Amino acid sequence: MSPPHPWLSVLVPFYRVEPYLRECVESVLAQVDGGVEIVLLDDASPDDCGTIARELRKSHGEVIRLLGHDRNRGIAEARNTLLADARGDYVWFLDSDDLMLPGAIAGLKAAIERTGADLVLCDFRVVRERMALKHRLRGEYHRSTFSGRDNQLESDRGVLLRGLMAARQLHPWSKIARRSCWGTAPFPPGRVVMEDMAAIPALVANVRTFVHVAEPWIGYRQRPGSALATLDAGKFRDVLASVRELHGAFADDPGLDARTRFAIDYFCIRALSSVAHRITGEQPALARELRDTLQRLFPGGLRVLLEECRRRGWWLRRRRISKGIERLERLA
What we know:
Layout: E1 8-14, H1 21-29, E2 36-42, H2 49-59, E3 64-68, H3 75-85, E4 90-93, E5 99-100, H4 104-115, E6 119-127, H5 133-137, H6 157-167, E7 175-178, H7 195-206, E8 210-221, H8 233-250, H9 258-278, H10 284-297, H11 303-311, H12 315-331
Parallel strand pairs: 1-2, 1-4, 2-3, 6-8
Antiparallel strand pairs: 4-7, 5-8, 6-7
Helix pairs in contact: 6-9, 7-8, 8-9, 8-10, 9-12
């Protein structure tokens, strides 16, 4: 049996990841201590993942628990199910095609013992079948998930939001938090991509203290079959919905200063601008939805935001946003 009162639950949902699942789980098993549980969830995977998970459960029953959905419900509901079942004081979401890098759990435990933080932010390394010099030059061996001070206990919510928005890495697997900080069912059911973006407001609302450890603890695998490898109309709409929810969650928050509001606005306009650049002339309905989202989020227009970009010397960023919006107006 896994520990009844673990200090950490590692939560791994899986679906169609047969080539990667065993390596993922074994990367965690190689470093667990007596107070760590691994909870796997079979989201009705049609390949041989279920067999692999049962074998791992049989061999490591003292650590691993295995859950299952009767039908495929998607990553958001899978994470919500795992969160509801977790027993650890802290929870760490891990995607089933990724890896936990050596020393990650020991590093996390040391950070918690040193700071007692509600939230620990870690960095990651990109994992490819073949790593070339260009990938190293892009910084793929160490990607930061937070823009701000490292290894310092912080309690300012504005600092947390600005650091997250600037780094633009909102995935849950780089955010190890007290189980209570995630709330209940923070991931919107049915959303295929960017469901993590929509979950950030709930996490930020419940975190009192946090620390960023500038070490890559996760190996983020780049593969062609991932959810973000191709973006169809449904996934585009998921992005729009998550951006609206993220922006709306903080729109009327009186506790946020102008710098933090700009950081949120800029993050959202960057996300929408990226979508605009990927819409084709055969997708006018999607272009109209994106334009409507822009008008809803920025009813007074983008002049103030673009002027702030100019004031900061962000000429290339400002130009990219402007080009995206111009293209959108032509398509819509």
